[in-house]
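Okay, any thoughts on this one?
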Amino acid sequence: MIRLAFTRVWRPRKGQRVNLQEVEDSLRDVHARFDLQALNYDPWEARHLASRLQAGGVSVYRSQLGKRAGTSRVPMIEITATPKNLQQIATVLIEAFNDRRLELYDDSDLRRDVTRFRVEERQYGFRLTSPRDEHGHGDLGTAFSLAMLAAS
């Protein structure tokens, strides 16, 4: 059984960007609270943040799925959007829901993002996509799918 313990969404203030210091501080706090074994991230959005966390004593791993390099310190693992990784993420999430291995608390943002996922066939197989709407591009759903990959 996989239980969702925490979600957090950062929204930019009007006319500004998301405050990355708040995100960084929150990630350190979450790691201290839950002793994370892995924190998967998309380098497109978080490479700079991962670099700052690493400089502050949080290890960053760049690797293929399941093949960590570096020390046993925790927790960030760069997951690039390769066809293999995208298909693995979709598989893990679909199987977890189908097998009823998830215990989620009610989070309206997560529910909205996850229910909007679509399976898209590609030459290499399939992947999950999230249509853009007035709430964004499914960022919490994407973060959840990366967390599910780590949990699996």
In short: The CA atoms of residues 13 and 24 lie 17 Å apart. Helices lie at 20-34, 43-55, 83-98, 108-115, 139-151. Residues 63-74 have pLDDT under 50 and may be disordered.
